[in-house]
Amino acid sequence: MILINLAIGLLTMMGCLIVQISFSFWSLRYATRQADEPGPGNGLLAGILTLLMAMLIMMLGNFLQIVLWGTLFYWLGEFHEFYEAVYHSAVNFTSLGYGDVVMSAQRKLLGPLEALNGILMLGLTSAALLGILQYLSKAKQQRQDRN
User: Fold this and answer.
1) pLDDT (tens digit, 9 = 90+) per residue, 66-100?
2) How many CA atoms lie within 13 A of 85 on its CB side?
3) CA dihedral (86, 110, 18, 30) positive or negative
4) DSSP H helical segments within 37-109, as ranges?
5) Residue 41 gets which letter from DSSP?
6) Where are the domains of the chain?
7) Do 50 and 129 form a contact (C-beta atoms < 8 A)?
8) Domain covering 2-37+52-141, topology
9) CA-based nearest residue to 98, from 81, 83, 115
10) Is 36:139 a contact under the CB 8 Å cutoff?
11) 111 CB contacts (<8 Å, ≥6 apart)?
12) What is the C-alpha end-to-end distance of the chain, expressed in Å?
């Protein structure tokens, strides 16, 4: 059963990585378009709004991953209510670890795998946001140097 859970968990983690990379690139593409547009909308407020939008896009990606794990738990029959499966998934994904809702002994290995996945994906979200912030700062500096 350990190998089956490991296989299920690793496949789900790969799916989550695809989701996270897609949403990160979508955020990056949005931010670079905003930064490269000429005009008066390149001030501090525009930069904040661009970062805010990029963050919202990536958080949507993280939420979709939580739902993906929750759907897996529901499909495996670990929970009778979909909401409870998604709640449990969110607690695992964020490494919060309340422990108020637990899976059966057969599937418990999936919890730590999801927590590991969540740490990695939230770290990727943070790194992408930092990259966008650096890009926006560099683009602003280059515009100032040209003027």
Assistant:
1) 999 999 999 999 999 999 999 999 999 999 988 88
2) 20
3) positive
4) 44-75, 82-93
5) -
6) 2-37+52-141
7) no
8) Helix Hairpins (1.10.287)
9) 115
10) yes
11) 92, 102, 103
12) 65
